[in-house]
Amino acid sequence: MNIQRLSISGAILASLLFTAWLINGDSRDSQAIAFSLVAGGLFGYILQRARFCFFCITRDFLEQRDSSGLLALVIALLVGTLGYHAVFGLFLPDPSVGRLPPDAHIGPISWVLALAALVFGIGMALSRSCISAHLYRLGEGSIGSIPALLGALLGFGIGFATWNTLYLAAIQQGPVVWLPSYLGYAGSALLQIAVLGAIALVLLRKHQMPSATKPTLGPIATLFQQRWSAPIAGLAIGFLAVIVYLRVAPLGVTAELGSLSRTAGDQLGLIPSRLQGLDTLAGCATAVKETLLSPNGAFVIGMVSMAFAAALPAGDFKPRLPSLSESARNFLGGTMLGWGAMTAIGCTVGTLLSGIMAAALSGWIFAVFCLIGVIGTWKLLQRTHS
Amino acid sequence: MLNLKQSLITAAGAAVLAIGSLAQASEYLVSTDWLEENLDRQDLRVIEVSVNPGVFERGHIPGAVNFRWHTDLVDTVSRDIIAGDDFQGLLQDAGISDDTEIVLYGDTNNWFAAWGAWIFDIYGVENVRLLDGGRSKWEAEGRPLSVRPSNYTAGNIEIGEPNLELRAFLPEVVEVARSENPEVDLVDIRSAAEYEGRVIAPEGVNELAVRAGHIPSAVNVSWGEAVAEDGTFKSADELREIYAAAGVDGSNPIITYCRIGERSSHTWFALSKILGFDVKNYDGSWTEYGNSVGVPVTNLAGTVWGGQ
């Protein structure tokens, strides 16, 4: 274990906590920002340690029949489903009254959602990461993620430009389906557990153990050096998702990016000054920036800095200059990620993770079409390469 | 370090408390101190009416009930306050009976809590008071919050006919606007920029008007003038002075308005409940008046359609 690297990580953690302490004040806003900074740090740490990248875990399964990453996702969704339902019981004791629990990412369903998820999936395969993974990879020194994230900003802008047309064509009339309002909390939790359990069984059956088994390391090495196992990563993400929803808002990583893009587009006069209905929909909503630091911005800052703090002692911090064609591909993929995330009001974190945990049909639909986009593009790329 | 910060906060809180407990501006206000001491009383019902959704659910005053202004306290189809029957059902579900004491509070300086108090008053519900300083003062003093939902057995309150003496409608306001020597004082509580006609509405709001400016003869006293630094209402003497400086001394009946009738309820509360003046709230406000055809408008900025 490299003591120097570990102490840099320690210093980053200390400054993150100190900043949170400074921000935290009497107002709820400041408390939400301080909390989000720490929670984002934890999220970035977990994602990096588990290498929880939605594209990579899918590719591991497709190429090597290694299910462990996808299992981590399923475990996170299971834990999150249970936790969300427990919180819902507090927020909205009776789910059948026609209200939705506050802030939960339960979106309208239409062909636009399916298309946005599909485009997002294609963007994932092209840029080899989703937005959350590009963010944590920034902490690993992935310079290639910068063009992808710049592309995402552009994609958001295109999303704003096409929003009013798509909203009036389909989104506005789209039904908002929240499973507990039909099945009750017990019914919806049981249904989701059954579906997730079935997916887990399939993944376990298809799983082939990686050929070389890793030696068991001590607890310190496990924490700082070795890749976290699927159950640990899944449990940690599910637990964090529930706590963050209880305290601030569902997990999401695109609201701040979208707000940056919307503010820029607004000032340049490139996007419609009135985005119909957008501010009334639940999800990773974006607003024209009024304050420098929002809870979601703090979350992303915490995430990137702690991903760096996690990558350093593990030896995962490897800055590398991408080739021009790789940068171009990442930029194009990133644009698709941005457009998809804006149009679906969230990405693999905000709509898939936080949506499915909230028992929103929109989360499941995003998952299905995103996966189709990823697998389709991956197969196409395989064919052109071979 | 944490302890240091904690003790600083406690000291600051104690100082605020000491100032806060010196005076309660009106019998229609309760202090945070009083409320915390009386929370266990069975005949007391605390109701949160906050502007922002999701605030109540993430922590409310223990035992409080949530009234959502945008669906619970209005007619959801036509532009109107909640119908009497629906309001009675809402109160009964919250376990309110004829002898229940009610305390309202909310976020953003009690804007919608005051609006709630106006609706309670219209329907003749008695024993209704406002938590002075609202939610932000309660939080700033580090008082407990709970996330547990409250469940009460249905109450038996019956409410009467709406008292329209508290509510101004467009024809009455137009009559004041047209009269040479109005015997009603209009108080516009919006920002100076809205009052002068420089903007139609603050940035980011969806409910707009076609014309900018204000109702002729209205004076501009922003709602915030009535609020002390800690979010409580200023003392009755201070309030009397502030409104008198604008020519509103209670000798005439008063009509308050804003953009949608919400913040003007805050001023309605200050003028009627603290100063005891005869006040109506014009809830149609500028979104009705500024869209009406043929009514007189004063526009100091000379804007047309929001431009020059």
UniProtKB/TrEMBL annotation, chain B:
InterPro entries assigned to the protein according to its UniProt record, in alphabetical order: Rhodanese-like_dom (IPR001763), Rhodanese-like_dom_sf (IPR036873), Thiosulfate_sulfurtransferase (IPR051126), Thiosulphate_STrfase_CS (IPR001307)
Keyword vocabulary terms for this entry: Repeat, Signal, Transferase
Protein name: Sulfurtransferase
Transmembrane stretches, start-end: none
Taxonomic source organism: Spiribacter salilacus
Superkingdom, natural source: Bacteria
Pfam families the record matches: Rhodanese (PF00581)
Residues making up the signal peptide according to the UniProt record: 1-25
Domain (Rhodanese): residue spans on this chain: 40-147, 180-298
Molecular function (Gene Ontology), one example: thiosulfate-cyanide sulfurtransferase activity
